[in-house]
Design a protein that fits this description.
homodimer; mainly alpha; Farnesyl Diphosphate Synthase; two-stranded antiparallel sheet; 18 helices; globular
């Protein structure tokens, strides 16, 4: 392997996607900048620029573009508009999430609700949704609109579900999956599916790309939730134990609760349902999870979803872009391998 | 005039519209109830039912239906779905507004952010937007989607503008009009215009109904803003002086500021820009407005918009529904006549 080859190998699949899609991504960035402007309300680009320029990885727009190219899109602006659309939806949900979670940091910087106020975060989030809506109507494709409307409902329902399922030990894996689809997978799958549809792909290819985005998003989110009980702050950008302190019913907890004996159950009731957490409780939670193999079982689930994502792409001929998407499916679980 | 005729006359145009559109409205109410349900997140219908059942006048859905019938719609579900769509959008904006304004009362009842929390209001608002989006896609009419997307952007931009224009004495009547379109008129005009489009109306009729909704909304909002400096709590459901205390740049203030001498200007700077309000300041503001005829000028503007709304309908033949919409244009300014 040459030095260049080694360097190429060292790059993550996201970097290689960004290079392969560079021309499209430059156009998408132009659309994002133009469309988030507001002649009369300078607060809007202030707030959004803060977030959109803040080193987001632009994963979701790249998924739209990659799917469209995998399905042989000939060019034009439509797939770029849809790519900007999903980034706007993503940014809008981040703004609203930070209000809901009362977050103070996002991507290593103070959140908009901290820099400005909750009002600005709510209203600028609404503005970005509206802009997304305008952009997605422009290609004039009703099937794409249907996909994005359904994804929006799944996202919103998942968010509410997360709010009401928090602190509820009765939360099942089925509900967890709905929350995860809302938080992450619904926009991933809408991105890949709408990219395929706008390229005029056949039904089998559209379905394959929906399945890829869905499985990729679920694998990604389970890995993220796992790292909250075992990763390092450097690997995740968040602190181990955040979910525990927020009493979230993530997959490792759900699996441990399902196998709990009476004494362990009393522990979970105290720390999660009652929120009475003391020194050493996080360690005790980790110990109980280890005893029941809960982290291992969640890891196996994540790997399974990653494999499903790869398998979905098997309908496409081998080509560099498919390889990058395959690698991306490995990459999202590499942190927990 | 018979007793019945007198009673009929005493009813407001909204009541007569509700009677004329009763069958459609019953169907719209069924759609609203079905579509706001969420199998897994009972918090959603709890919050929305609280608001949607709370005696809202359903003015916006009636505007969709009236416009569609004025343009001779033959039946079907599409106009009803669009009517439910605009009610969902309206309810979503109310939920977000109450978070932004930190309101404690709406329609004489405690607001959702007070009964539940800000989180629920933000997320359930998002859920209703998403549900609105799904509903509006179903008729499969791209022109309607374009209208509603543009209205959403106008609404969101107007809200942000209102936030940033508050307390800014440089706010012009042009900016005020943008805020008013965002707050009120954009959804009124989107309702009437989309009703016309879904009925397959000719361009002139579509334009007329857009103009009617736009002018009606502006007349309504100016009247509302005027009453804040002179109405009674019973007439408006809000207290005289609320806008003053919140330092809002509404039309009467803008007109008074434009004619202010040095001493008056210092007063406006103190009470609006600096927010240093003392006993008797509201009365002083009213006195300054009276001196410059600011309330009278704003009243004249409202009457002008009301007349424009009526004039827009002149392209339609005389019929009961047109008469009710004419009367509605009178009604919204009757409170300030």
């Amino acid at each position: 392997m040459t030095m260049d080859g080694a360097a190429e190998q060292a790059k993550g699949p996201q970097d290689r996607l960004a290079e392969a899609l560079a021309e499209d991504m430059a156009a998408v960035n132009r659309i994002i900048r133009t469309r988030m402007a507001s002649e009369h309300a300078p607060r809007i680009p202030e707030v959004t620029a803060h977030l959109i320029e803040a080193g987001g990885k632009r994963l979701r727009p790249m998924l739209v573009l990659a799917a469209a190219h995998l399905c042989g899109i000939a060019g034009g602006e439509d797939h770029r508009k849809l790519a900007a659309t999903v980034e706007f939806i993503h940014t809008a949900t981040l703004l609203h999430d930070d209000v809901v979670d009362e977050s103070r940091q996002r991507r290593g910087r103070p959140t908009a609700n901290l820099l400005w106020d909750n009002k600005s975060s709510v209203l600028v989030g609404d503005y970005l949704f509206a802009r997304a809506f305008q952009l997605m109507v422009e290609p004039g494709n009703l099937r794409v609109l249907d996909i994005l409307a359904n994804a929006s409902a799944t996202i919103a329902e998942g968010e509410v579900l997360q709010l009401t399922a928090a602190q509820d030990l009765a939360t099942s894996e089925e509900i967890y999956l709905k929350v995860v689809r809302g938080k992450t997978a619904a926009l991933f799958s809408a991105a890949t599916e709408s990219g395929a549809v706008i390229a005029g792909a056949a039904d089998a290819a559209v379905r394959a790309l929906y399945n890829y985005g869905d499985a990729l998003g679920i694998a990604f989110q389970i890995a993220d939730d796992l790292l909250d009980y075992g990763g390092t702050s450097a690997a995740t950008g968040k602190n181990v134990g955040d979910d525990f302190r927020e009493r979230k019913l993530t997959l490792p907890v759900i699996k441990a609760v399902a196998k709990a004996n009476a004494e362990e159950r009393a522990f979970w009731v105290r720390v999660i349902e009652k929120g009475d957490q003391r020194d050493g409780d996080l360690e005790r939670a980790q110990e109980i999870m280890a005893r029941h193999g809960a982290l291992e079982a969640a890891r196996t689930d994540a790997m399974g979803w990653s494999a499903r994502a790869r398998a979905a792409l098997s309908v496409f001929p081998d080509q560099p872009l498919r390889g990058m998407l395959d690698d991306l499916a490995d990459f999202v679980v590499a942190r927990i391998a």
